[in-house]
Amino acid sequence: MSFTKKQVTQLSYAIIGLAIKVHKILGPGLLESVYEKCLLYELQKAGHEVKQQLIVPVVYEEMIFDTDLRLDLLVDEIVIVELKAIETVPPVHEAKLLTYMKLLKKPQGLMINFFTDNITKSMKPFVNEYFRHLPDE
Q1: CA-based, 20 to 30 A from 71: which of 1, 15, 95, 123?
Q2: Sheet holding 50-55, edge to edge
Q3: Three-class SS of residue 133?
Q4: How far apart are CA 14 and CA 8, in angstroms?
Q5: Is residue 26, in this structure, part of any structural domain at all?
């Protein structure tokens, strides 16, 4: 199934809205795995297809290598969600999300840090060349 930029953006807003709901109920200070389970529940309840702790293979030349790389959530086969529950997200985590997006050819990634008083201030969206090549509508 192909998506438009508008559909991907709408999906991202829906994911962020559900993350805000989880954060309002639980608040900051819990383990990342707790937020992941609750967000997974909310996404599935809203009718989204979600893969959790998906292994990210590395394709190098003609070889495919199984790795220990795992993304937190893949929503509707299009948006990768990486969750954190730490004071400051180091740049290496953002680079990892961008790499997951490239390896899996996904146009949108969301880095959501639950260790905050406001999800919208700490959340970072990422797009790449796959997003740029999507039709607008």
Answers
A1: 1
A2: 50-55, 70-75, 79-84, 108-113, 124-127
A3: coil
A4: 10
A5: yes
d(CA 119, CA 123): 6
Contacts of 108 (CB under 8 A, 6+ apart): 8, 9, 11, 12, 78, 79, 80, 101, 125, 126, 127, 131
In a domain, 136, yes or no: no
In a domain, 105, yes or no: yes
104 contacts 83 by C-beta, under 8 angstroms: no
Per-residue tens of pLDDT for the chain, all 137 residues: 689 999 999 999 999 999 999 999 999 999 999 999 999 999 999 999 999 999 999 989 999 998 889 999 999 999 999 999 999 999 999 999 999 999 999 999 999 999 999 999 999 999 999 999 999 98
Structure tokens at 10: 């709408």
Q: Rounded distance, CA 129 to CA 86, Å?
A: 29
